Structure formats: C-alpha cells, structure tokens
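FYI - complex with flavin-adenine dinucleotide, inputs then prediction.
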Amino acid sequence: MSVAKRTFDAVIVGAGGAGLRAALQLAESGMKTAVLTKVFPTRSHTVAAQGGVAASLGNSTEDNWHWHMYDTVKGSDWLGDQDAIEFMCRKANEVVVELEHYGMPFDRTDSGKIYQRPFGGHSQNYGQTPVSRSCAAADRTGHAMLHALYQRNVRANTQFFVEWMALDLIRDSEGNVLGVTALEMETGEVSIFHAKATVFATGGAGRIYHSSTNAFINTGDGVGMAARAGIPLEDMEFWQFHPTGVAGAGVLITEGVRGEGGILRNASGERFMERYAPNLKDLASRDVVSRAMTTEINEGRGCGPDKDYVLLDITHLSPETIMKRLPGIHEIAIQFAGVDPIKEPIPVVPTCHYQMGGIPTNYKGQVVVPKDGNPNAPVTGFYAAGECACASVHGANRLGTNSLLDLLVFGKSAGETVVEDLQSGNLSLRPLPADAADFSLSRIARLESQTNGESVFDVGLEMRRTMQKHAGVFRFDSLLKEGVAKMAEVAERAKRTEIGDKSKVWNTARVEALELDNLIEVARATIVSAEARKESRGAHVRDDAPDTAEFPNGRNDNDWLKHTLWYSEGDRLDYKPVNLNPLNEGTEPIALAKRTY
Amino acid sequence: MTKRSVQFKIYRYDPDKDEKPYMQDITVDLEPSDKKLLDALVRLKGKDDTLSFRRSCREGVCGSDAMNINGKNGLACLTAIDGLPQPVVLRPLPGLPVIRDLIVDMTQFFKQYHSIKPYLVNDDPAPERERLQSPEDREELNGLYECILCACCSTSCPSFWWNPDKFVGPAGLLAAYRFLADTRDQATTERLDNLEDPYRLFRCHSIMNCVDVCPKGLNPTRAIGKIKDMMVARAV
Ligand SMILES: Cc1cc2nc3c(=O)[nH]c(=O)nc-3n(C[C@H](O)[C@H](O)[C@H](O)COP(=O)(O)OP(=O)(O)OC[C@H]3O[C@@H](n4cnc5c(N)ncnc54)[C@H](O)[C@@H]3O)c2cc1C
Ligand code: SF4
Ligand code: SF4
Ligand code: FES
C-alpha cells in the first residue's frame, strides 16, 4: 500500500484549548503548520468546561501570583514542579487578557473588567481567606474560550485537517521525532505527516473509567501513541474523581446537594456514612465520602442490577427547597438520571474527571525523558501541552480552573518554543525511515483480517469496569494487585479485537478499535503506577497508608516525593525527582507541609 | 421488569458497498441506564458496528450529533428515548451531502460560517489589561455566543436548502450579529457591506424553522431581524 506524504514545519495533533493556543503561535509566526483533529475544533472537550480559568487579576478581591503559586503547590500535595508552577501563575494574567482581546465574552464587573468568582482551594494570603480568582463566562467558560480560540485561528489562517486521526508517532533510530501517521476518516486513507516539530495536544483519557465526566473522544490517543513509541508516562496513578456524578451518564451533581441535606444510601436504604463519619456523615470531605462509597460498592451493597452505584436521596426535602436551592440539579437529574429528585433518589458514583499525569514535559513544552543521567533530557522534535502533558503543575491533585489556565500557558509556550527552535535552526527535516508507516498499516491490516476476535465494545467495557473497581478513588493493595493482572489480561484481549465494519468510508468501528489501543496503554500505566506507589498523596489514597504521626495524611516524603515514570515495554517503572525549586532566584520555594484546609 | 427496547428505521448508506441509500428496520434492547437517543445508538452500535454517526460530549455542548429525528432536527444526546414515537425514524441532516449513514458533509455549513469573518476585529493597539465592557453591553451577547455550530437550524431552513452556496443561513447570521453586537468590535461597516446582497442576508423570509429546532434555545430569526434593522438604519 502506498502512503501519501505531507511535509510541514510543524504538525500539531489536537485542536482543543491547548492545540489551538499553540497553533495560533505558529500560524502568526508564518510557519507552515498542520493541525490535525479527530473532530471539528469546537467539538473538542474543552467546550464542556464550566467554572472558569484562574488568573490573579484581582478584579474584585486583592490577589497576586505568589498566592496562586502557593495554592497550586499545596493543591498538588507538593508533587508539582515549582518551576513550572511559578511559570504558569506568573503568566496567567497575560494569557487571560490576551484571550479577552481575542474576543472571549467574559462576564463583567460593574467597572467593566473581567468577572471573577471564588473556587475551591484558591485563597488569599497563603491559605487565609477565599479569593475570587476564576475568570468566567457564565457557567460556559470552556465553550466561550474554545470558540474564541478557534475564531482567532480562522483569522490567522491556520491550516486544519479536520476528522483526521493521528495513529502513531514516527521516530528515527536515534529517537528523534519526525511526525505522525494519520487516518483520514472520510476516505480511510493513511498518510504520513512529516515535520520538523510535532506537538501533542490530544487531551485526557477519562474514558478508561466506567463512570466519567469526559466525552467519548477522550481516549488518550497522544498518551497512547507516546507510550507505544517508547516515551515514559509520568504520574499516571493520579486521577481526579468527583464523589457524585450521575451513574451511567457521568454528569456532575454538585456537593451543594449534600449541603442542603442530601443523604447517601446503599442497596438496603441504609445511611451508610454514619458508619464511616459519625459526626459529619454525608458532609465529610470528598476523599472520605468517595472512599466510603467505593467500599459499599466493592462489598456488594451497591444498587442496581450490577450493584455498581449508590443513591443520593433528597426526597425528604420539601419541593420548594429543591426548586429554590437546587434548580439546576433538579434539571440534570431529570435530563440525565431520568428521575425527578423530588420523588426518587439519584443514582451516583465517584466519577473520573481529570488526568493529572501524562507525557512528561518541561515548562517550555518540550517532551523530556531520562537520558545519560539527565532525568529531563528533551526529545528532539517533540512537544506536548494540555491535559495529555505533565509539566507538572497539577502534581497529585489539580485545583479547579487551573486546567484551562494550563492550556493557555503551556499551549502558548510550546508554540513559542517550537518557533524559536525552528528559527534558530535547531530543528531540521530529518530523513524518514523506510518503514515509517508500517506499524500503523499493520495495526489496520490486523483489524481487516482478524477472525474469531473479541468485540471492541466488550473489551472496552471490561477495561472500564476493571479500572473502576481496581483503581478507583480509594485504593486497596489487594485490589490493585488483582487489577494489574486483570488489566494485563484485558490488554491481551485487546490485541485480538475484531470489527464487522470493513468499509473505507467513515469507519467509526475502526476508529474505536484504534482508540481502544490507546486507552489500554493509559489504563495499564495507571494501574501499574498506582500499585507501586505505597503512600497516599493527593488523589491517590491507599487503605494501607493512613494518616499517622509519622506520615501525615499517609504521605511519605522520605520515599515517595518523586515522579513516577512508566514505560509500556514490560511495564517498567522508573522515578525522577520533583523540582522543589522555583524558576527564578528571587522566588521563595513553598516548603513541604501537611495539607489541611 | 420488562425489557425496554427501541424500534428504529434508520437511513443507511455506505458508498463503499451500497448502490443507493435504504431505510433499515432494526430493534435494540436497552439497559436501564440508557435514557437518551444517543445511548440507544451507542447500544445499537455495540450490536452492529457498521452504523456510523458522529458524537462526542453526550451533554449537548459539542454539537456533533445533530440528526433528523422523526422528521425534526435535534441532538441525539438531548433527546429522551421515552416518549419518542416508534419506530424512531432517523435520517441525516437534510440539505447537505450525505457521506455515510447519519454523517453529512458540513463543508458548506462551515464555509458560510467562515464567510462572515467570525472573529473579533479591533485594530487599536492592544492595551495591557482587558478592554472594558459594561455588564449591560456584555448582556447583548447572551443568546448569541452560546451557539454550538450543530447546524440543526441551517439544515431546517428552506432558503438554505435552495441556496446553500449563497445564503449565509441562520447559524452564520447569528454569528455575524454576535460580532456586530459586540462593543469591542470595529468592523461594523465591513460586516454590513459583506451581507448587503440579495442572497447572503435577504433570503431569510422569517419562516422561523431555525428557532423551532435550535437545541440551545437560541433565536437566529431575531438576530437576522436586528441585522436588517442595522442595514435600514445606515441607509437613512
Ligand atoms: C465536564 C468538565 C468540566 C471542566 N471544567 C473545568 C473548569 O471549569 N476549569 C478548568 O480549568 N478545567 C475544567 N475541566 C478540565 C479541562 O476542561 C480539560 O482538562 C481541558 O479542556 C483539556 O483541554 P486539551 O486542549 O488538553 O484537550 P481537549 O479539549 O480534550 O482537546 C483534545 C483535542 O485533541 C484531538 N485529538 C485527540 N486525539 C487525536 C488523534 N488521535 N488525532 C487527532 N486529533 C486528536 C481532539 O480532536 C481535540 O481537538 C473540566 C473538564 C470536564 C470534563
Ligand atoms: S427564519 Fe430565516 S433563517 Fe430561519 S429558517 Fe426561516 S428563512 Fe431560514
Ligand atoms: S443557532 Fe442553534 S441550531 Fe443553529 S447551529 Fe447554533 S446551536 Fe445549532
Ligand atoms: S454529543 Fe455533543 S452535542 Fe450531542
């Protein structure tokens, strides 16, 4: 099969917030750039973000980037790299103001400035009082931001390849990155995108879990491609969960429901939180509630035919209270849970929300791997930004509104670094190996010829159920160990997937089979990394690493203040130090401390 | 508990193997968690993976899964299964070329969107901080900026069916007014000139199909009316 070749200065994979921000930098600098995306740019999942984007503009309460940096380091449970965090917090005002100049319809204060609202974990004066730091466009900030960035790219004449799916990363024998192979969905043809620079901005992989707030397309393609090409994945054990997402649908139900008196119940109707948190009960902190819910489900007291959810009950509240205090939740419950919460309880599960780990990068957006004793050696020609990347600013736990900021700051800086590297002549168009497309073609050929195989639907379901049960919000050593073995089995099954659709035209069955390969890499990385990390930190909470005097919150800085690196080949693990030093000499490091709010 | 199921009549066409399109009768059993039409389609795809359709967010914000449902355009992910008359007749969005099954070629739709210069134009030197805009001026953008480019409206508009290459269509015109209404934008004259044409704007005969189908509750007809008012105002 002959494979068409296209040549560019830079190819960007992904047109969500991060990809579009990087694309703008390249298009405006006049570099010949291709932006590949599985979906029309404004359909990327950035569109679903609601709450806002963080910046210490101080439009309604006093604020500065030092406070933001402190909150972010503390939120990360000190696993975030302080150079990258300083960089992000210092750049926040600039990139948010730029976005406003691009036309983003932010809400406004009475004096006409960008409206800001308070958000969890963001504070004034190093944890003292809440601060209004989240710049918002109603509860549609992601939509407004993604459209504004797309529109600015239309103005800049960015060249998009819409509904093209990147399949594999191309590297030469020295490990330099030379571009990607990609499938045009409409024709089924595979092409090579040969480039001096390749930027991944493919978003998260929340679809490895059964219950997820993420879109169908969030299948971790960039992360999977990197892993298959020998790039290690960083801190993949850290996933952010929200205790109450609608079971099956994944849509969020705010904590405010329990604030109004909502009660969690198991299959026998028992208010089980009384056993776990006798004082605060249903209003205990998020990790405690999620842990209790997971225990109920794992011990067979979940509800429904598969006993895989619990119930959030507000039927004892008056209809007036519900309609006055919780009108949005009333609507979501009817739309997505199919229950009127005035009459029936809402099925909920801890819901996977955000991937803290990813492709290791530095604050400039360069992908970095251990090489010759340097834990952070840049891979020539390879860059990444956004949820698929790990800079690492979110460490073990991301603060709300810091992801949209991450897209803007690191999308821009990756774009700037590529432009600099191209202009300084650091990057050249290296010769393509003769077999550059063979691996991708063989994956497609296997799907073409597979007989007596497994259904993509069934294997995917098994993966999601395994991850939900074995690497959920609260983690048990025995479940993790079983999970590692189970995921290895599922990964074997995924090698024999079979599809019924053999058409060349818009073959979505093929796309889903190829996506599953990526999800499997992410799921393996997650469970193997989680099993190995024998402490509790941020979102990774282990039963056998409880809060003790020696290890507050179960966190063990002596042994585990380090980033995990997982290699796909042989499930090999490696570690690298956390950078506790800020970027600039004048900036005070945020000293290690117990995380309490 | 009795099994819920949905009976479908679905437009099928795969240019790779079908000589012409046909309607497929097919029934799918649902799981209790399947609430929306999109859930049923995903369930169906688990059974017959040859059915092609677009989808992503499954919560009505990405605009991927617009289709013609029992004769009316809508999003599969926001359409409840219960209460839908059966068999549920699914067709691709009308008026655009069909690529395969429920997937249409949206090129013409986006071309019209791009034709109105859908970006803020302000050539003053960028200030160090945000440009100021009063909350009242910002209010003017409500009901305009929320568009998800699903194309439900334009593909239910007869004027767009007849002249997809010449008439901008409701989605594009809504976007045009979104920038005309933005106090930060400086290209009013240019934008109005761009629409001063027997087709681009004036093919809208206020039939209101667009308003009727918009899954986000937006009102392109009103926006079009406002552009026409601006045209009149500058003529006098
Ligand atoms: C419901 C929800 C609400 C949220 N709210 C907030 C919030 O209020 N504030 C906040 O800061 N964060 C929020 N987040 C998190 C934040 O929205 C995401 O982390 C962020 O938008 C991810 O952006 P991205 O650019 O990295 O990826 P995405 O926006 O997911 O874009 C990925 C892009 O990559 C493309 N792509 C993927 N794979 C391929 C491939 N193989 N080939 C070609 N293209 C490919 C896709 O087509 C897409 O264009 C929220 C998340 C969710 C799920
Ligand atoms: S009101 Fe105008 S744009 Fe809307 S459907 Fe009718 S003719 Fe089309
Ligand atoms: S105006 Fe409404 S129907 Fe038309 S594209 Fe926008 S969201 Fe869809
Ligand atoms: S799937 Fe996104 S709008 Fe329906």
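Chain A touches chain B through 63 residues (CB under 8 Å). Residues B 157, 159, 170, 204-210, 220-221, 224 surround iron/sulfur cluster (ligand 2) (CB under 6 Å).
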